[in-house]
Structure formats: C-alpha cells, structure tokens
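Predict structure. Chain length: 127.
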Amino acid sequence: MKKYKKPLLIALVVLDVAIIAFFLVISIMLLVTMATNGGDKTAAVAHSDGLIKAILEMPAVGSFFAFVFPIFLILAGNIVGLMLFVRKTTKKEPAKIEDLTEEQKEELRQELLRDLQGQNNKEEKKE
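Prediction complete.
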C-alpha cells in the first residue's frame, strides 16, 4: 500500500488543480460573455453557444450545485489535507543526548537516580 501512496497523492493534487483550473476558465468565460452583452442575461444567451449557453440557461440552484458547491468541497478537502500535513510534519521528535547541555544531562542523571532508588525502596518493602 505504501508504494501506491505517493502516486495517489500526486494524482489527487493534479486532479484538484485541473478541476480548479476548469472552473476558473469557465467563470472567466461567463464574466466576459456577460460583460460584452452589458450584463443582460437574455442577450448573453442569444449571443453564446455550447457550454456557456447551457450554463447561462441553468437555474441558479443548478449553477450552485454544478460549480459553487464543488469548489467549496475542494476547499474543505484542501484545508483538511493541510491540517493533516501540518500535524504530521510538526510532531516533536524525542530529544537526543547530544542535543542536551551538560546541566540538563546532570539533571537527567539525578532524576534517573531518584527514580531507581524509589523503585528499589518499593521492591524492598514488598519483600
């Protein structure tokens, strides 16, 4: 499964970018079509054809579920992915002995000695 994880993530990112680019191009085409017709939707429908005409003829609810809702879903997925990535990359690694100063090493030795002595005392009491 691990060997498929990286290609799957790459494919998902490419798909994400492709969908967003598609919606961006369609929205720019719609804006240009509406702007050239003075904001009149009826004239824009009459002067356009193909996908742009079909989109302009859609009711508002249809346009919402065809274009706006998928963008919000992609945005939510990107936010969740970013949060998971940040959590994964910011996990604290255990401190290495080489990273500690001499004072910290001495404090750690003293603490370990106290713990060992406390364990020895408990064992002696049990016997």
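Summary: Residues 94-127 form one domain.
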